[in-house]
Structures are given as C-alpha cells and as structure tokens.
Design goal:
The chain is built from eleven helices and nine strands. Helices cover 44% and strands 15% of the residues. It has 252 residues and is an alpha/beta fold. The longest helix has 15 residues, at 49-63. The strands form two sheets. Strands 2-1-3-4-8-9 form a six-stranded parallel beta sheet, with helices on both faces. The protein has a three-stranded antiparallel beta sheet with strand order 5-7-6. The two termini are 17 Å apart. The protein folds into two domains: 2-103 and 177-247, Alpha/Beta hydrolase fold, catalytic domain (Rossmann fold), CATH 3.40.50; 109-162, no CATH class. The radius of gyration is 18 Å and the shape is globular. The relative contact order is 0.16.
Length: 252
C-alpha cells in the first residue's frame, strides 16, 4: 500500500508504482486515497493519524488483500507507522518517506497552505487564477499547479475539493503524535526503512540519530539519506525506486 502526503492522492505515486512493478514483478502496489483526499472524501471524525491507519485495516478486510509492505510519504509516513504498530503478521516492511516519528509545533509549507488558501477567495474563474493566488502566497509554480489539482468545476466556477478545516485537524494530530515507541520497539517481523531527503528538515538530525541508535540496538530499522527535497518521488524517484527494488523481500 502506498500512502500519499497531506493534500495529495494515491495517483501522485502512479509513475513510481509502475516502475516498481516492472523492476519487481513479484510486487504490486495499491495506491490509496487517504480519508478526505481524492476519491475518499466522506469519512466521519475524528480526523486523526490513528483514524487514517484504522481505515487501512478496513480496506484490507474489504478487498481481502493484506499488504506485505506499506510506504507512506510525509503525513502518510506517520499513518504507515501507526498501521505497523498494530502488529500485523503479514507486514514485513514499512517505508517512511521524508516523514518523522517526532512531535513538534505545527510548521512548514503544508501548514502554511492553510493560511494561504483562507486568504484567497472561496471560488475561482479558472485553475490558473487559483495557482496565481498560491504563487502570490509564496509557493512555487510547480507546487501551486499540484495544489490546484484539488479544485473541482461546479456551477461555473472552481472550488476546492478539500475541507481545509479537516485538513487542519489531520495536520494538528500529525504534529502531536509521538511514534518513537514503534521505532524503538517495532513489532516482531516488521522492518522499518526511513528515507530522509537531504534538502528537507522534516526529519531532524536529532531524529536521525535516534533512528540510528535504534538500529544498533535491535536491527529492525534503517535510515537512508537521499538527495532531493521533501517531494522525493518527484525530485529523485530513481533513488526511491532503487531502494525499494533492492530492499523489498522476495516473493513468499
């Protein structure tokens, strides 16, 4: 299962999933739209990391497919760690892509999106108009273009598909959820792989040191440093693909 970050959707990882299927045909990928994202807009509160992880268990039950590995980027990384904490016997690996088990005060570009969109009009005559507003708020054209993919055309104008109050609830829970217990005492049989983007501060150096200490103590967690920014599947997909191709276990 592949879990996107906040404001994203599963299809953000389509290219990498296709490449992985070619490189490792013994693995297939399920690109999940997390609660309140993409094609999963209607979920009851509370909107938390734990609730998003519980959704995965329901998904596995309803599809009758148990994931041997889960990859999560950013917000999805913490969801993947909470899922791992459930101790699923079938889960051999968890990949945490530029995310963190740490807690901290809300901050960063994803958090600033909330303030930026709330200063913009509720509707727009075009996607370009919305993108211009985001660029004016300090975001790059590439990030703005990705964010406006969350617009829908309705009654002659464009409006956000996302409920930003619910996004705020998810992000607040992300920042206050401490998952060091999963790193320092992972379930038997589950190996954790953290991938840190060298040009991102999402995973702190103190956090990296703590992960390395856990690796030396029990050997079930690894840290990989990769060139690129937070959006590694865009900045350096070849490196992410190489790690997965190399470290995913063989078919059972």
């Amino acid at each position: 299962m592949v879990l996107h970050g906040i404001y994203g959707r599963g299809r953000n990882w389509t290219t990498l999933a296709r490449q992985l299927a070619e490189a490792r045909p013994d693995w297939a990928s399920l690109l999940v739209d997390l609660r309140l994202h993409g094609a999963s807009p209607d979920f009851a509160p509370p909107h938390t990391v734990a609730a998003a992880a519980a959704d995965l268990v329901v998904l596995e039950d309803e599809t009758r497919q148990e994931a041997g590995a889960v990859l999560g980027h950013s917000f999805g990384g913490k969801v993947a760690l909470v899922h791992a904490a459930g101790g699923h016997d079938h889960l051999s690996q968890v990949w945490v892509i530029d995310s963190t088990p740490e807690t901290r005060e809300p901050q960063g570009s994803a958090w600033r999106v909330l303030d930026t969109v709330r200063k913009l009009p509720p509707t727009f005559p075009s996607r370009a108009a919305a993108a211009d507003g985001l660029v004016g708020g300090g975001y790059s054209p590439a990030v703005a273009a990705w964010l406006v993919s969350n617009l829908r055309f309705d009654h002659g104008h464009y409006a956000w598909r996302l409920d930003f109050d619910a996004m705020e609830a998810l992000l607040r829970d992300f920042f206050r959820t401490d998952l060091w217990d999963v790193v320092e005492d992972p379930p038997r049989g589950t190996v954790l792989h953290f991938v840190k983007a060298n040009e991102s501060s999402v995973l702190s150096e103190a956090g990296c040191a703590r992960i390395e200490h856990a690796r030396r103590r029990h050997g079930q967690v690894y840290l990989h440093r990769v060139a690129g920014g937070h959006w590694l599947h865009v900045d350096n997909p070849d490196a992410v693909l190489h790690l997965l191709e190399t470290h995913l276990p063989g078919a059972r």
